[in-house]
Specification:
This protein is an alpha/beta fold and about 725 residues long. The chain folds into four domains: about 170 residues, P-loop containing nucleotide triphosphate hydrolases (Rossmann fold, 3-Layer(aba) Sandwich); about 220 residues, Rossmann fold; about 80 residues, no CATH class; about 170 residues, Sec63 N-terminal domain-like fold, CATH 1.10.3380.30. The strands form three sheets. The protein has an eight-stranded mixed β-sheet with strand order 1-11-10-18-15-12-14-13, sandwiched between helices. Strands 5-4-6-3-7-8-2-9 form an eight-stranded mixed β-sheet, sandwiched between helices. A two-stranded antiparallel ribbon has the order 16-17. Helix 6 packs parallel to helix 17 and helix 23 packs across helix 27. The protein starts with a helix and ends in a 19-residue tail after the last helix.
Length: about 725
């Protein structure tokens, strides 16, 4: 090879030299950065939309949509206060256990702990209290029970927080059922992020509840947002043209991204290293920040890289942070050895994602909210439902993983992320920083800044649990009338008329959507009749009645296990193991399990259930229904845990993140609780299930961390 040719190959193999990163900013940002600061303290005065909402709920249902941090909690507190002071009862429902626990603590501080009860599955305390806080699934289940007994729900107000979950693919059906079943005598207050079709939802509720529903839409952010663009060299520019409010890029940002390909993506652009990014933000007083990243691994890698960053904080803040951490982890000694603890303590940086233990996430959230951290590296799931503000949010992707695939950010998802930028009462202005790269379409992000909020679409679907519970208190004709009340049916009739819901619905359009739901119901009903859970006269058999109490993902799988006497009813650890295999949704590597790692009694019990349920699984699949795949590793893991294995040892066998394991344990506990309700039919199994719950819900899976709650954060 000639020297010339050798030089050529050397050049193309050599990685491109990164340009030195030097923090800089466009001169037009000088006045913007000068506005950074803490607003003056002044007496709280409710905004007009808050006052109107409180007045409205006294005489009508009310749907409030407002940006994150605009003050929706204040409305809920005042509405609950009026009911409480009038000696009534209130029910506050939220989508997440963590959010429910936070609201319970916050409401306890306001109304007194003796007046609060909590229902999350994990916690069941003071359930006769005048104010109940719980998850929406628990509220829906109470409505099932009330319909079965022919009673009214014992409450005078229902608050549905995060009401846009009505459109959640996995859990929206619970919200829709709750709205349909709730007696119209009970006022319904719904609090939501900004959504595009609030009036349509209100129109639907008016049509099924025969009660006025008022929409109150607040579009102004409590803290103004300024979008920024980071050039890979380290220079900050405005993202948008200040003279154009329809998503046009600032000329300097446009000059860079339009040199790339595929509508704003610059594949050659590399984001500055994390320490350099932090130094840039620190120089311009843009910390604390939340970095939204694509995956758990990206979050942890960014945190590791950020360890090279040295902030300008004084030593007293670091000492106070370390003391606060010691205070928080005193309830969870296991976390003292967390691999990210040193970076959290010494650098004020944290990582937050679903692969971590709930207790660790609570600590990171608490430290960030209390002002002890400079940055948190998080997946986009932190944007929804958790009070987790910062001065700046930084994002590298214009898409996100929705649980199945990567798809472009919706306007609502983008607004939830940017809603974390700017802390009310702590910031005069918030910032959203877009960093170009392979997965970033800058032009699309520019459009999202002023994009109309996403519409909520009905996610109602029929399942066996719903079918059994409706048949407890309704005949098929009545159920068809309920399905006719679905939001899905209403949306078909309102197609093309999103902003103003129609007063009358064309019956031919209405019946089409109802017919789809009805046919699905009949398919479930026929299978239940074939398996003798429902009699030919459409009433539940004795088996159908107790099976209806299994309000879980696969109620018939559990029911058939009991019918066929397949479950190890007298052994709590074995029962927990089998339930873990039923609820597990992850594909695990069973082939790598060594023979001596499988307890003999578990192997026998697992084979009994697997073989015994196989014919039923085939029946389900032949009739078009899904059935879970049984994996052995989750079963062994829960068996070990229920028998007292230490957490660190357990993780050496488990082949995933400890956050995933904690979730598996909590979902297993949920299933066991439902089995525990069957004491009148299967007393031995019910007793074992209750013992198993006590065995598996222990540190560090569940830990009581009750940080100080500042109710002014979201007022």
């Amino acid at each position: 090879m000639t020297n010339k040719r050798r030089d050529f190959h050397r050049k193309i193999r050599r990685p491109p030299n990164r340009q030195p990163v030097k923090a800089g900013s466009d001169k037009s940002l000088k006045s913007v950065f000068a506005s950074i600061g803490v607003p003056k303290k002044k007496p709280f005065k409710p905004d007009a939309f808050q006052t109107r909402a409180i007045e409205t709920i006294r005489e009508a249902d009310c749907l409030v949509t407002a940006p994150t941090g605009a003050g929706k909690t204040y409305i809920a507190v005042e509405a609950v206060r009026e009911v409480f002071e009038g000696l009534g009862r209130a029910w506050y429902a939220s989508p997440l256990k963590a959010l429910t626990n936070a609201k319970y603590q916050e409401f306890s501080d306001i109304f007194g702990a003796d007046n609060l009860g909590i229902l999350t599955g994990d916690r069941k305390e003071n359930t006769d209290a005048p104010i109940l806080v719980g998850t929406t699934e628990i509220l829906r289940n109470q409505l099932y029970d009330a319909m079965h007994r022919g009673e009214n729900l014992s409450t005078d107000l229902v608050v549905l927080d995060e009401a846009h979950y009505l459109g959640d693919v996995d859990r929206g059906v619970v919200w829709e059922e709750t709205m349909i079943y709730l007696p119209s005598r009970i006022p319904l207050l719904m609090l939501s992020a900004t959504i595009g079709n609030a009036r349509q939802i209100a129109g639907w509720l008016e049509s099924i509840r025969k009660r006025r529903c008022v929409t109150i839409e607040e579009k102004n952010r409590p803290v103004p947002l300024f979008p920024l663009f980071l050039h890979p060299s380290g220079t900050l520019f405005p993202l948008l043209d200040p003279k154009e409010k329809k998503g046009r890029l600032h000329r300097k940002a446009s000059g860079f991204v339009d040199g790339g390909r595929d509508r704003g993506r610059n594949f050659r652009a590399q984001a500055p290293p994390v320490p350099d990014l932090l130094r840039i933000l620190d120089k311009y007083n843009l910390l604390p920040a939340i970095f939204f990243l694509k995956s758990r691994a990206d979050c942890d890698s960014a945190l590791a890289a950020g360890g090279a960053f040295s902030s300008s904080e004084d030593s007293s803040r670091r000492k106070n942070r370390e003391a606060r951490i010691e205070e928080l982890i005193s309830a969870v000694p296991h976390l003292a050895g967390h691999k990210q603890m040193k970076t959290l303590k010494k650098k004020g940086l944290g990582s937050h994602h679903s692969g971590q233990l709930p207790a660790w996430k609570i600590i990171v959230e608490t430290l960030m909210t209390e002002g002890y951290l400079d940055a948190v590296f998080a997946t986009s799931t932190v944007a929804a439902g958790v009070n987790f503000p910062a001065r700046t949010i930084v994002f590298f992707n214009s898409d996100r993983f929705n649980g199945r695939e990567f798809s472009p950010l919706t306007p609502t998802e983008f607004h939830q992320m940017t809603g974390r930028a700017g802390r009310r009462g702590m910031d005069k202005i918030g910032f959203a920083l877009a960093v170009p790269g392979r997965y970033m379409d800058i032009h699309y992000v520019a459009e999202l800044v002023h994009a109309r909020a996403t519409d909520v679409i009905s996610q109602i679907r029929i399942n066996f649990s719903m079918t059994l519970n409706l048949l407890l208190s309704h005949d098929p004709g009545q159920i068809r009338e309920l399905l006719d009340k679905s939001f899905a049916t209403y949306q078909v009739s309102a197609s093309g008329q999103i902003k103003e819901a129609p007063k009358q619905q064309p019956p031919e359009k209405k019946s089409r959507e109802t017919e789809l739901l009805w046919q699905s119901f009949l398919q479930h009903l026929d299978f239940l009749k074939k398996k003798k859970y429902v009699a030919e006269d459409d009433s539940l058999t004795d088996d159908g009645i107790w099976a209806s109490q299994l309000r879980i993902d696969h109620p018939l799988m559990v029911a058939e296990g009991f019918r066929r006497n397949l479950f190890p009813a007298d052994d709590p650890a074995l029962l927990a193991a089998i339930m873990a295999s039923l609820v597990n949704e992850r594909e695990t590597d069973d082939a790598s399990i060594l023979a001596d790692e499988i307890p003999e009694n578990l192997e026998e019990a697992f084979a009994t259930v697997d073989d015994g349920l196989l014919p039923f699984v085939m029946e389900l699949e032949n009739d078009g229904f899904d059935a879970p795949v049984f994996y052995l590793r989750p079963a062994i893991t829960l068996y070990m845990w229920a028998r007292g294995t230490e957490w660190e040892e357990l993780l050496t066998f488990w082949d995933g993140a400890e956050g995933d394991l904690a979730m598996l344990i909590m979902r297993t506990a949920d299933n066991l609780r439902h089995i525990g309700n069957l004491s009148g039919v299967f007393p031995a199994a019910a007793g074992s299930a209750k013992q198993a719950v006590d065995r598996i819900l222990r540190d560090p899976v569940v830990s009581v961390i009750e940080p100080d709650v500042n109710p002014d954060i979201d007022l």
